[in-house]
Design a protein that fits this description.
The chain is α+β, with helices and mostly antiparallel strands. It contains 3 helices and 5 strands; from the N terminus they run H-E-E-E-H-E-E-H. The chain is globular and about 50 Å long. Bound molecules: guanosine-5'-monophosphate (5GP) and zinc ion.
Length: 141
């Protein structure tokens, strides 16, 4: 199994660093975050080392989200939450600290005081179209 010996999450998968396991599948592992943003904050990771979403083979990505979707309702129930933010920080500029792709499951309840870290902007329709066309053109190459 592909692992990075320097990677903290690879060490967790290998059992070299302790973690509180929530669930696992053939390709994915879910465990409690050591620095929870909210009670029950859980991480879901591929068992193999991949840095970003684009590095994760489609079948592994599907396995990660299969496990995340299976854990999410049980987690909501376990901590008495009402919903959840499911997020993935991609790249250091976006707050990715651990360079092993992971999905955050952050249980939420109304009035819990957590705020979105960014304000919504105002869309410029021409710009939206321009960006979408550029992305589509890159994808078609
Ligand atoms: P990122 O900022 O990279 O999206 O999130 C990394 C997450 O990993 C953080 O929420 C942090 O608390 C968690 N984390 C970092 N090191 C460890 C560790 O050794 N054990 C566990 N359980 N979580 C960790
Ligand atoms: Zn790793």
């Amino acid at each position: 199994m592909a692992a990075d010996p320097q990677c903290v999450f690879c060490k967790i998968v290998a059992g070299q660093i302790p973690s509180v396991k929530v669930a696992e599948s053939d390709v994915a592992y879910a465990f409690m975050d050591i620095g929870p943003i909210a009670t029950g904050h859980t991480l879901v990771i591929p068992k193999e080392h991949y840095v970003g979403v684009e590095d994760v083979p489609a079948e592994v990505a599907a396995g990660v989200f299969e496990l995340a979707a299976r854990v999410a309702p049980a987690l909501v129930q376990a901590v008495g939450a009402e919903g959840m933010n499911i997020l993935q920080n991609h790249g250091r500029c976006a707050g990715q600290v651990v360079m092993h792709m992971h999905v955050h499951l952050i249980p939420r309840r109304a009035g819990d005081g957590l705020q979105r870290p960014w304000p919504a902007g105002q869309a410029d329709p021409a710009e939206l179209k321009r960006i979408a066309e550029k992305v589509a053109s890159t994808l078609s190459k």
